[in-house]
Amino acid sequence: MRNLMILFPARNEADGLSVVVDMIPTTELRRLGWNHRMVLVDGHSTDGTAEEARRLGMEVFEQQGEIGKGVGLREAFDHFLASGDEALVMLDPDGTYDARDIPLLLNRMDNSDSDVVIGSRLRGKMDDGAMGRVNYVGNHILTWTAVALFRHFISDLCTGFWAFKREAISAMHLNSIAFEIEAEMYAASCHNKLQIGEVPIQYHCRIGSAKLGSVHDGIRILRKLLVRRFFPTPVNPYIQD
User: Fold this and answer.
1) Whether 240 contacts 164, CB under 8 Å
2) pLDDT value at 208 more than 80
3) How far is Cα 37 from Cα 14, in angstroms, rounded to an integer?
4) pLDDT tens digits along 23-37
5) How far is it, in rounded angstroms, from Cα 150 to Cα 5?
6) Are 10 and 49 in contact (CB under 8 A)?
7) End-to-end CA distance of the chain, in Å?
8) What is the CA radius of gyration of the chain?
9) pTM above threshold 0.85
10) Residue 204 main-chain phi, psi, to 5 deg
């Protein structure tokens, strides 16, 4: 049996946690040879997210740096590398990503040369209303821009559903603060010549209020792509406590 960390980056997501945990296909993961543990990196929540996560049997890793998804994931990646786990799957615990799709990503990673596998919303099945028109168009534009800059195909740059081999996490050096983290993970994977695979996934309507701002965060993502295109190693990878 191999050890898998299922990582949930969260800030004020108490309402969606039980829905996501109930969808984790424990029996299938065991059949595929994976022992898994659930870890939530809590980004300074104020709605009882950490307490709800513990009630559901998750390990809770408290984010120490400033508020931001990028900071939380970078700290969580260090936590993963300090463990004995062999692979990591990350997904947002807001109900949009279907945890029953986790085996799809792991199977693609096992049955191909992929070091990193993404779950593609834009090639999968979306529920009506799960993604607004502006976000849909913006996701396509950012994805096309990323492919044009890095010359490595991907169909959904901003997805929050990823699987990594341990060596892939170790190879990536990141400095993102917020929602540009996925774009930087893609850029770092390209610079380190990691093989990126993908599978189509289901995408549902969000539980709770959205935190991603369409225009502001889109500009941050675009800027991150441009900076990392010309700077293979981040200038300041350190987290300020």
Assistant:
1) no
2) no
3) 19
4) 999 999 999 999 999
5) 29
6) yes
7) 37
8) 16
9) yes
10) -110, 170
Check if the beta carbon of residue 107 is closer than 8 Å to that of residue 32: yes
The conformation of residue 236, written as its DSSP 8-state character, comes to -
Q: Given pLDDT bands bounded at 50, 70 and 90, which one contains residue 241?
A: very low
Its sign, for the CA torsion 104, 106, 112, 118, is: positive
CA 93/CA 105 separation, integer angstroms: 17
What's the whole-number mean pLDDT along residues 59-68? 92
Residues in the chain, overall count: 241
Q: How far is CA 80 from CA 69, 85, 107, 139, 146, in A?
A: 16, 7, 21, 29, 27
Q: Give the burial class of 25: count Cβ atoms within 10 A of its Cβ; 0-12 exposed, 13-18 middle, 19 or more buried.
A: middle
